[in-house]
Amino acid sequence: MIDYRLLQAMAAVLEQGGFEKAAQALNLTQSAVSQRIKQLEQQLGQPVLIRSLPPRATALGQRLHNHLQQVRQLEAGLELSANPDDLIIRITVNADSLDTWLPAALVLNTYPLLRFEVSVEDQAVGLRRMKQGEVMACLCASADPVNGGAVIPLGVMRYRALASPEFIQRYQLSAGESAHLQQAPCLVYSRDDRLQHQFLADVAGIEPLYTHHLPSSEGFIRAACAGLGYGMMPELQVRPELEQGLLVDLVPGYSLDVPLYWHYWQMESPVMETLRHSVVTAARQALY
Fold first, then answer.
1. How confident is the model at residue 42 (pLDDT cuts 50, 70, 90)?
2. Is 266 among the domain residues?
3. Is the residue at 184 inside a domain?
4. Residue 127 CA to chain centroid, in angstroms?
5. Cys-Cys link to 171, which of 11, 75, 160, 184 (CB 3.0-4.6 A)?
6. What DSSP character marks residue 133?
7. pTM of this prediction?
8. Coiled-coil stretches, from where to where (predicted)?
9. Residue at 220 is within a domain
């Protein structure tokens, strides 16, 4: 059985950004903190920290830190913890949800001191962090739950293939010829982003030849408005640009609906249950 005093020492080093500050937070000497972490690593037979500046968790350390956070949540739900400020919720979400409807769902009045650590992955691959035990919940496009997990559908996010009017004129895309589409550069959020590929496959049975990689949801839209390329953008996020005529459809009437799902562990703490209900409520108000 793991000694939770040792886990708390490891967590303090990660959360405080170093051994000295961890010692101050735990009212221990720096040597005592180091000894507890060494004892934990000896018990497990492998390191839990990378001794960098600041220290970082190994893959095992991340899973243990996540586990400790779940224990803290359960204690808070049972009113056994006097430190709700210690709660850190680690979730993985897709960038387009984070830039549109999701932030409102993270405001939980029941837990005003709750802290979030949000990692961003493409909606097609975000579930891998949950499978690795790094996060407590995941928002992604996969409907298949992980072992020990459950999943609930949230709705669909609608994407449209958009570009600036000048871009369409420059590449003669209004003609609708597949050769013109293939020659025109497209915008891709990351190497996992395949929405543009799906669009071209649907309308012309081809693959893009030229891509710009832009890992910023807002930068993606600004680049399209500037005429750098075309891309698949969430209708929810680009309504002002559509109304102003800054962006127009490459293929009028075409849209691609991406389903979104909330993944959570079946052994759910009261904090995570509250978060899940908030996410579901926000999604039903924003998504199709």
1. very high
2. no
3. yes
4. 9
5. 184
6. T
7. 0.79
8. none
9. yes
